[in-house]
Write a structure and sequence with these properties.
Helices cover 52% and strands 11% of the residues. By secondary structure, it is α/β, with parallel strands linked by helices. Residues 265-271 have low confidence and may be disordered.
């Protein structure tokens, strides 16, 4: 499945900037509607290391009210999280109605990292496909608007980004020994991802695979996907905000012109 993804797709420069701002403005209006209509929203990001998950999340949150969202960076479970069923910690992090929860990695770790690294046995990760589908169906049936993004990059692009990070003192902290070890297991992870996409992309909770070799293209695709689905789910056209604002501005201008026309002309008298 991943082998069919066209990673040559690109969006750069002025075209990227215009598309980014357009979608961010629309998302700002839709985020308010999420609150006004009291709909919970979940956005989960999965993808290769250095695929650009953090950059995409930053562009989502850049223009929306910070009171309306929360971002969870998911790592290995600790404390109480480690003593319960793997979905327990996610149940406790579900958004309230009218709020947006963004997950940087998610419950899909069960059928990827935990599967590959041997943190659960074969019966457990095979059972997880059914558990996850049921979990997500419950969320959607409740009224949750659910997005699932897999950001895909080529093995060559990942290496380029790794080397770029390693040579940058300000970003080298992002690169760990675990990233390099995961890279050595690329083929195993690719097999797990293909199976994940096949078995957990359902009618109620489909995956969106994002072509990520071009960061600009990936960010805009994520934003436009959010805008399109939120517009349908909320039955709201975010472009109407711009139209109303323009009409209001025009109305004020027309009133000012009318006022000037009604004012008596005063001739300047020279002596």
């Amino acid at each position: 499945m991943l082998s069919t993804i066209d990673l040559s797709l690109s969006l750069e420069g002025e075209e990227y900037s215009k598309s980014l701002i357009k979608n961010q403005v629309a998302l700002n209006a839709l985020a308010y509607q999420v609150y006004a209509q009291q709909r919970p929203v979940i956005i989960i990001f999965e993808g290769w290391d250095a695929a650009g998950k953090g950059g995409a999340i930053r562009r989502i949150t850049e223009k929306i009210d910070p009171r309306g969202y929360v971002v969870y960076s998911i790592a290995a479970p600790k404390g109480d999280d480690a003593t319960h069923h793997y979905l327990w910690r996610f149940w406790n992090r579900l958004p309230e109605s009218g709020q947006i929860a963004i997950f940087d990695r998610s419950w899909y770790g069960r059928i990827m990292v935990e599967r590959i690294e041997g943190f659960c046995n074969e019966d457990e990760w095979k059972r997880a496909y059914r558990e996850i589908n049921q979990f997500e169906r419950q969320l959607v049936d409740f009224g949750t608007i659910l997005f699932k993004f897999w950001i895909h990059v080529s093995k060559e692009e990942q290496l380029r980004r790794f080397e770029s990070r390693a040579g940058d003192k300000l970003r080298s902290w992002k690169l760990t020994g675990e990233d390099w070890r995961n890279r050595e297991k690329w083929d195993l992870y690719e097999e797990a991802v293909n199976e994940m996409l096949l078995k957990t992309s359902t009618v109620s909770a489909p995956w969106t695979v994002v072509e990520g070799d071009s960061k600009g293209y990936a960010r805009v695709k994520v934003l436009s996907t959010l805008v399109d689905k939120l517009s349908k789910e909320l039955d709201y056209d975010p472009s109407s905000v711009k139209t109303k604002a323009a009409a209001k501005k025009k109305g004020k201008k027309d009133k000012a012109v009318k006022k000037n026309k009604d004012e008596p002309l005063i001739e300047k008298v020279t002596t």
